[in-house]
Design brief:
Elements lengths: L10 E10 L2 E8 L5 E7 L6 E3 L5 E3 L2 H11 L7 H17 L4 E3 H13 L3 H11 L5 H16 L9
Parallel strand pairs: 4-6
Antiparallel strand pairs: 1-2, 2-3, 4-5
Length: 160
């Protein structure tokens, strides 16, 4: 690490603190001029590409998941903290797969699986856009599946 004042290559670390799960803040002192400075280290994640339905590829963007969830949960009693937990859960699962590409349909299924247990109305809203319901029969089939799941005891609140 070069000192920003004298460009000496030698410095010692005085203090290290974790900022979050991927970043560390280090307080350093230059061995030559004795001035102090701060550096940040961040883990560089492998960029994951999302394969869209039409074959295009784009970089994975967790904000798109959050935006879709916020739209689905609009005017519903779903705290933003629950939405953040879903996004964090999906992001973590994708990173643990150690893959460089994932189909958008897989991400959509991950979102719907988690949203089912948070809010049924938000789930149906998300599913109607994601699955592009073509007619009322498709919509009612999805509602029936949700009812069956609820009767079987799978619709209870679960921690993410």
């Amino acid at each position: 690490m070069l000192c920003p004042y004298c460009e000496c290559k030698e410095s010692k670390v005085l203090d290290s603190r974790h900022i979050d799960s991927t970043s560390i803040r280090r307080r350093r002192e230059c061995e030559k001029c004795k001035k102090r400075f701060t550096t940040y280290e961040k883990i560089e994640m492998i960029p994951v590409m999302v394969i869209k339905k039409d074959g295009r590829r784009e970089a994975f963007d967790r904000d798109k998941i959050k935006f879709g969830l916020i739209r689905s949960c609009e005017k519903r009693p779903v705290p933003i903290s629950n939405i953040d937990k879903i996004v964090e859960s999906i992001d973590g699962e994708i990173n643990k797969m150690y893959i460089d590409e994932i189909e958008s349909s897989k991400i959509g299924e991950m979102v719907m699986e988690r949203l089912k247990d948070v809010d049924e109305i938000a789930y149906v809203r998300f599913a109607s856009v994601y699955r592009q319901f073509k007619d009322l029969d498709t919509f009612f089939n999805e509602l029936e599946n949700l009812q069956k799941r609820k009767k079987e005891g799978h619709g209870e609140d679960n921690d993410l």
